[in-house]
Amino acid sequence: MKNTAIDTKNDTEPIVDLNDVWVAYDGKWILKSIYFDCYPGEIFGIVGPNGGGKTTLLNVILGLVNPPKGSVQLFGSPPNKQSRLEVGYLPQISHADQSFPVTVLDVVLMGLYSRIGLFHRPDRNSKKIAMDLLSQINMADHAKRPFAVLSGGQQQRVNIARAMASKPKLLVLDEPSTGVDSVAQEDFYELLAKFRNEQGISVIMVSHDIGVITSHADRVACLNVQLHYHDEPDSCFSPAITREVFGEDLKVIVHDSKCATCYRSHQNHD
Amino acid sequence: MIQNVQPVIVVIKTMIDMFSLQFMQNAFLAGMMLSFVLAVVSFFVVLRRLSFIGVGVAHSAFGGVALGALLGISPTLTAIGFAVVVSNAIGYIGKKGHLGTDTAIGIFFPLAMAMGVIFIGMSDQYNVDLFGYLFGNILAITRQDLIITAVLGGLVLLSTVLFFKELLFVAYDREVAFVSGMPVAFLDHFFLTILALSVVISMKIIGIILVSALLVIPGAAASQITHRYDSMIAFSIIIALISTIGGLIISYYADLPSGATIVTLASFIFFAAFAVGQIRR
């Protein structure tokens, strides 16, 4: 069942490796017999309906949920404080208090706190690292602005800069498209690809949005309690699997950077 | 001319009278120290959305005061023990029992009060001014209280400065903070402990019933007028100082209860800050 389709993986160890993982909540299985692996430099997309166990799967990978059955390896050991330091995590955008009194720079600096260490304040060097990251995401001019006044897309980019601040080897993203308009989404995924291409990081992202995931991931799996694998992202749309994962009433609109029937702005449309 | 100067002289004379009184000196000193402590703690109470926990922890201190009265030992010491244990128990049971903090407060708040009433019932001594602890009594502030306030208040402020960036991160996004290596569980209990200590050192001047207001209002009022955490802390301290010092002066002149006057003044400042925030938006 395990997918090892991409040849380069044979030479390297997976950075995330789940073997026969089961998780139950309130006597009901949320995850059943999950086999999952992710390799260095890979963008892995997981799609599935709400309540299908996507966030739980991420929590298992991060060690926030301990499965009663099965084994979890994150960078070669069970998830722990040390292996989590290699991970940049981006929860759903609605997770944090949107009116929290921090500036854009403060948010990115938080990503450096664990490196700065206890009892130390962010110094000039930390601020330089944070400002460099803000430049990379074209947000340097916004550094002193309150985070709360940014648009959803801008906030998401700043959050990715925070996740990247600690120089992680793996980015874990939970519903990265929530609250972000489609144009900003395109920019966001371009940014992800850029970080992957330049720094070789891996990305695991989950979403209920099939179109977004399939057009930006190297490998895709569909999750609804059980995980279904697909060698090519597009094959995720095999009717039998989509019916099993999402049910009968599903309409799919495929959108990617080559999409001919959509518009980047109203001007183009006119 | 002499007639115009007369009221000013009267005010200055009364001020001199007020500051020449030992208990007023003690009250002002305690009030100023508390302002810094309560302002900083309220900053985190508001950001962590734990406003109701101040009420729960403050009332639990009543159980401790009554226990001190029963055993004939310092009510401040027993109140520290009671408040620290209850505050951490609220955090622990709320989390482990999957109840949420509000439900855990709903259990421990009446339990600590009930134990307080039982202790009073068991005690045949009435030499402890329980009413003073409930509503504040500035006449009761001793030199020993000032030392306790300075030591515990200093400890709360110093440790908050040391863990400031970690506390800020956990308040902002605890999941991301945990994944990026912050000691979230430790910081939760650390915060509950400094909250409990802040309540205990505020008992005599503001009172158990009313102190929860100053664990919320300075931070809440400051949040209405700024979007930056550093200026929010600064405003929070200024608002707490105006409330306590102003409240003490008003209560002296108008012969009103100090704790209630301080809290009422703080509330008016909140309404003013709310109005300013709405106008600027």
The largest sheet of chain A, given as strand count, sense and whether it forms a barrel, is:
6 strands, mixed
Number of strand segments of chain A: 9
Give the class-level CATH name of the largest domain in chain A: Alpha Beta
Approximately how much beta-strand content do the residues of chain B carry? under 5%
Distance between the termini of chain B: 47 Å
Task: Indicate the overall shape of chain B.
Answer: globular
Query: Secondary-structure element order of chain A, as H and E?
Result: EEEHEHEHHHHEHEHEEHH
What's a quick, concise take on this entry?
Chain A is built from 10 helices and 9 strands.
Commentary on this structure:
The complex is a heterodimer of chains A (270) and B (281). Chain A has two domains: 180 residues, Rossmann fold (3-Layer(aba) Sandwich), CATH 3.40.50.300; 75 residues, no CATH class. In chain A, helix 3 packs parallel to helix 6 and helix 6 packs parallel to helix 7. In chain A, the strands form two sheets. Chain A has a six-stranded mixed β-sheet, with helices on both faces. Chain A has ten helices and nine strands. With 281 residues, chain B is mainly alpha-helical. Helix content of chain B is 84%, strand content 0%. In chain B, helix 3 packs parallel to helix 5, helix 3 packs across helix 10 and helix 13 crosses helix 14. The radius of gyration of chain B is 20 Å and the shape is globular. At the A-B interface, strand 5, helix 3 and helix 4 of A face helix 8 and helix 9 of B.
Q: Which key phrases capture this entry?
A:
heterodimer, A: 270 residues, alpha/beta, Rossmann fold, six-stranded mixed β-sheet, three-stranded antiparallel β-sheet, 10 helices, 9 strands, 33% helix, disordered N terminus, B: 281 residues, mainly alpha, ABC transporter involved in vitamin B12 uptake, BtuC
